[in-house]
Amino acid sequence: MDFRLVPDQEPDKILELLRAHLDREGFRDIEITTLVTAKPAKTPLDHPFVRRVVEIAEAVSGERASITPLAPPTLPIIPSLHEHLALPGLAAPDNPTYAGSRMHAPNEHIRLEDIQPALRFTCALLSRLGDA
Questions:
Q1: Nearest to 88 by CA among 38, 130, 49
Q2: CA 87, 91, 96 angle in degrees (round to 5)?
Q3: In degrees rounded to 5, what are phi and psi of residue 80?
Q4: pTM above 0.85?
Q5: What's the pLDDT at 132?
Q6: Which parts of the chain have pLDDT scores under 50?
Q7: Could you count the other beta carbons within 10 Å of the beta carbon of residue 58?
Q8: Where are the domains of the chain?
Q9: For position 125, what pLDDT does the model report?
Q10: Coil/strand/helix, residue 39
């Protein structure tokens, strides 16, 4: 079972609620084994780092950036950046995926035509991110 958390949810609390629900519904015999947890995180859309990544994406693509404020994938490094270094983080469009790519499923795949734009963006991001 996989839970995708949103800001202000704590992994341990969600597990506690799941255990209580199972117990209440008569499933005390079900054992929960936690493999990994990750806290949710979100960088404000008006943060200068977000604005800079958007500028680069728009310059590379020649199109207006599409922003998804919260997405299902978990990037455990982002909560760590927030918590330990007070740094922003986000998932930039550097992965050549699309809605049907079956991310993290046994038949995960990418389309060849998506690789070039992803590489172009990643190169631009790494070379321009520190420019004013």
A1: 49
A2: 150
A3: -65, -40
A4: no
A5: 63
A6: none
A7: 12
A8: 1-37, 41-128
A9: 92
A10: coil
